[in-house]
């Protein structure tokens, strides 16, 4: 149930099943105003539905790999920003406790994914508009508590994220989810929510081992989630001066074929951009990093003529 504070007009999400008959009033977390809680017999005057659904078909893509240091957040942020620049409406969801997506975009959200999943704040107030057509559900340290909440749930714990993100269904063209390194309950929730997985993999031996292990873990989820597929493999930190990079890229080409995306070259501008709170398109639009991520956007969109 959604109720509206009569003082500041902000909306609050309340789980009616957890309310006893003795609870008669609520306190607004924004303005502190106390007001009576409307019950079903009081009529629907203060109860509002979430935004009306549209006919938009949303593509859900997880940027994920168990190994860290392969450029997951850089890829998620610049893919989401690139899609927004291409005219698509995009939601970027940061499921990492480090919360680096907000830092990279230069925004400081007051609420994010934690507040959405715990029901403390209504969905619309959890998001921040980071750029035109690009909204962000921020991560951060508080997600550690969400992981404990998921772990304690007895039934369908793998669907908690799907239930939390359901209000956004059909309101975005793309939902891009950045995941943390490792394999935990929140990553599993992400994989049950999405239908497509994009895996960045740095061109080094240990990253390839991590990719193979991730593919095995992914297969275990696919047993129960038949629509899930590894759609894109993105080689990162490509350096033609290093012989090993070419060798590993060749191995990836033979194994993943059409799923392999053009590599993202090693580029110092990609590491500098977050310090300025900018995407690579804003910080260094003519750099190799910007060109490579534009190519990735073309691949994901299936539009080779984009920006040509």
TrEMBL record:
One Pfam family hit: AAA_31
Domain AAA: 59-225
InterPro entries in UniProt: AAA_dom, DNA_Partitioning_ATPase, P-loop_NTPase, Znf/thioredoxin_put
Top-level taxon of origin: Bacteria
CDD domains cross-referenced by the UniProt entry: ParAB_family
Domain Zinc finger/thioredoxin putative: 1-36
Protein name: Chromosome partitioning protein
Source organism of this protein record: Desulfacinum infernum DSM 9756
């Amino acid at each position: 149930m959604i109720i509206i504070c009569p003082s500041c007009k902000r909306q609050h999400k309340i789980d009616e099943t957890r309310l006893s008959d003795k609870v008669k009033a609520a306190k607004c977390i924004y303005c502190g105003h106390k007001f009576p809680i409307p019950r079903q017999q009081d009529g629907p005057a203060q109860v509002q539905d979430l935004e009306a659904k549209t006919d938009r078909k949303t593509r859900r893509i997880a940027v994920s790999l168990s190994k860290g240091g392969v450029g997951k957040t850089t890829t998620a942020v610049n893919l989401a920003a690139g899609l927004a620049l291409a005219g698509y409406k995009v939601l970027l969801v940061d499921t990492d406790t480090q919360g680096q997506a907000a830092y990279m975009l230069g925004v400081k959200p007051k609420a994010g994914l934690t507040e959405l999943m715990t029901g403390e704040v209504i969905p619309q107030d959890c998001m921040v508009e980071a750029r035109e057509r690009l909204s962000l559900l921020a991560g951060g340290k508080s997600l550690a508590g969400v992981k404990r909440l998921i772990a304690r749930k007895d039934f369908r714990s793998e669907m908690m994220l799907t239930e939390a993100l359901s209000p956004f269904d059909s309101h975005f063209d793309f939902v891009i989810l950045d995941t943390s390194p490792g394999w935990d309950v929140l990553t599993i929730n992400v994989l049950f929510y999405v239908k497509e997985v994009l895996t960045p993999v740095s061109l080094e031996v240990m990253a390839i081992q991590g990719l193979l292990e991730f593919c095995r873990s992914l297969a275990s989820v696919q047993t129960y989630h038949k629509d899930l597929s590894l759609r894109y493999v993105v080689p990162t930190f490509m350096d033609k001066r290093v012989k090993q990079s070419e060798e590993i890229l060749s191995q990836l080409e033979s194994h993943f074929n059409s799923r392999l995306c053009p590599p993202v070259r090693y580029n110092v501008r990609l590491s500098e951009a977050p310090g300025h709170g900018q995407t690579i398109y804003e910080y260094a639009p003519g750099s190799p990093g910007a060109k490579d991520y534009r190519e990735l956007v073309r691949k994901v969109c299936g539009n080779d003529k984009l920006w040509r």
